[in-house]
Amino acid sequence: MAAKGRDVTQIPQVRLSDGHQMPQLGFGTWDLNGEVAQRAVTRALEVGYRHLDMATLYRNEAWIGRALAASGIARNELFLTGKVHPDDLAPAAARRALETTLTDLGVDHLDLYLIHSPGVRRYGNAYITCWDALQEFRDEGLTTSIGVSNFTADHIAALHGMAPVVNQVELHPTYSQPELRAQMADREIAVVSYSPLGQASDLTDQVVQQIAETAGRTPAQVVLRWHLQHGLTPIPKSSHPQRIADNLDVFDFELSREQMGLIDSLNRPDVD
Known about the structure:
Blueprint (H helix, E strand, L loop, with lengths): L12 E3 L5 E3 L3 E2 L5 H14 L3 E3 L7 H11 L7 E6 L6 H15 L4 E6 L4 H4 L2 H14 L3 E7 L3 H5 L8 E5 L7 H9 L3 E5 L11 H10 L3 H11 L3 E2 L6 H6 L10 H8 L8
Parallel strand pairs: 3-4, 4-5, 5-6, 6-7, 7-8, 8-9, 9-10
Antiparallel strand pairs: 1-2
């Protein structure tokens, strides 16, 4: 099922707490290396993705920058997310990291910049001063919005100033984090789901496969639709051209309340 070409305005938008908007489905770039990253991002842009999720940790931003430059897509049509590495939490290091990201991508600003992880075990409370730095970057126009990744509610409560607009966390049917989702909703913080397919492990579940067969969809499309109907923003990753397209083709069907409940029941609270 090939995705229909679409521009960013046809993908639902999530309104963030700072008033800006984020496309409700993005393309993840973790573990895409070298030319593989460039080809995958090129394919994603061709079929209609406009929200790209990146990070210094992934070591592929220069390759993604080449795909962006070759795409011919106007900067204002793109939503670009970057993340500061936990080793770069000191304000000066975070600034250098952001400047390197901008140079590698060939852009003058990001749409969203995140602290990749609080890094408490190694760096203590350094994430708090890093958050202060991110607010400065936002004020300077180096990024439009700022947020966090892999944060608990307690980590967020320790921050000064404005609240994050996004918390990006691992989230998928067998690890659906309902308590954290409720905490973020109370704080008006949007949740972005990484590993939204459970690194493909959730796709083999009998419940997912049966719903996919009934709906005439792929298991991945069913799981991504589950994310969307919960108000989450999934960022699936693939290097396979057809799967990249299929994962975007999820806006012309809906799961029933019963189907949503069946997928909800797959959550295993004891999963690490």
